[in-house]
């Protein structure tokens, strides 16, 4: 199985610290070699960057949007060449450019989003307590905020909320949860994940609404004991093998165009190495199930 590979290490304004180092850490720790043992071959990584001359002062939303357009171009090209594309990203803001790339590659497809995360990332500037942009990409993609961000990244159309599935969410802001409840977003909380047949049924029904899927994983969906260097830890999470099985069920639908992974802080020492090992275990468990999309 051949899978194209794109990296988007940028996080707000730096690819050289914290989460920005996550994609390189995964590759340097033997991700490709580990996957090869299960028959998965990764293409040469192609990296999305934002040239200095395109940066807009102290405007992270504009810069993330502009970076998203570069990422989208790589995703579109990878899909045209390889059909399935793994994206290693710094943080969750990368998802906007990834979706833009899929929409450009298949402009008539009904694109859906599956968000595998401890957090909903469904805040808007009005609901967010922190103002952190990484807590907003799902709401941005749903068209509830950030039109300049979407336009800069090249998103063709917002994703209708009935084509958004959130999996493993257990930590929502109060206003964020209220906003989610006013939409058609389907949330699968950790307690529901223990019933494999029920979860598979949810996935099957959701996939029928979509021609192509973008699946995004924030590694804080794992329990903090497996990702001890996580920047936004949340208790009560999954083990890497459990998460890999859940993601594998999504990949087996034959609808997934892109799988993106973000939120790896490689840190230093044992904590960082354990987080890296957990990420690789998750991907090694999931990727062999990736059926090639038949549409797009």
Salient structural properties:
about 300 residues; alpha/beta; Arginase, Chain A; nine-stranded parallel β-sheet
Largest sheet: 9 strands, parallel
User: What Rg do the Cα atoms give?
Assistant: 17 Å
CATH class: Alpha Beta
Q: Strand portion, in percent? A: 5-15%
3D shape:
globular
Which structural category do the helix and sheet elements fall into? Answer: alpha/beta
Query: Whole-Å distance between the termini?
Result: 18 Å
Q: In percent, how helical is the residue content?
A: 25-40%
Number of helices: 10
CATH topology: Arginase, Chain A
Mean pLDDT, nearest integer? Answer: 94
Low-confidence stretches: none
Could you state the order of secondary-structure elements as H and E?
A: EHHEEHEHEHHEHEHEHEH
Number of strands: 9
Q: Brief description of this entry?
A:
Helices cover 38% and strands 15% of the residues. By secondary structure, it is α/β, with parallel strands linked by helices.
């Amino acid at each position: 199985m051949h899978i194209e590979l794109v990296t988007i290490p940028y996080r707000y304004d730096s690819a050289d610290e914290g989460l920005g180092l996550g994609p390189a850490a995964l590759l340097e720790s033997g991700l490709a070699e580990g996957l090869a043992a299960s028959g998965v071959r990764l293409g040469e990584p192609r990296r999305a960057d934002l040239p200095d001359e395109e940066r807009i002062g102290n405007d992270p939303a504009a810069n993330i949007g502009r970076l998203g357009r570069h990422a989208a171009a790589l995703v579109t090209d990878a899909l045209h060449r390889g059909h399935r594309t793994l994206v290693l990203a710094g943080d969750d803001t990368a998802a906007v450019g990834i979706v833009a790339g899929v929409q450009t590659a298949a402009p008539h497809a009904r694109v859906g989003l599956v968000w595998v995360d401890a957090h909903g990332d469904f805040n808007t500037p009005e609901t967010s307590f922190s103002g952190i942009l990484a807590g907003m990409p799902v709401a941005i993609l749903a068209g509830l905020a950030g039109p300049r961000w979407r336009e800069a990244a090249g998103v063709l159309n917002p994703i209708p909320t009935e084509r958004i599935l959130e999996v493993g969410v257990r930590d929502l802001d109060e206003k964020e949860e209220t906003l989610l409840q006013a939409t058609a977003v389907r949330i699968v909380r950790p307690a529901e994940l223990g019933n494999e047949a029920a979860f598979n049924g949810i996935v099957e029904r959701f996939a029928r609404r979509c021609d192509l899927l973008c699946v995004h994983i924030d590694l804080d969906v794992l329990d903090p004991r497996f990702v001890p260097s996580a920047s936004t830890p949340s208790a009560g999470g999954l083990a890497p093998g459990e998460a890999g099985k859940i993601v594998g069920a999504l990949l087996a639908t034959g609808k997934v165009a892109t799988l993106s992974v973000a939120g790896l802080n490689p840190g230093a020492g044992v904590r960082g190495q354990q987080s890296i090992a957990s990420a690789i275990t998750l991907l090694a468990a999931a990727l062999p199930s990736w059926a090639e999309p038949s549409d797009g």
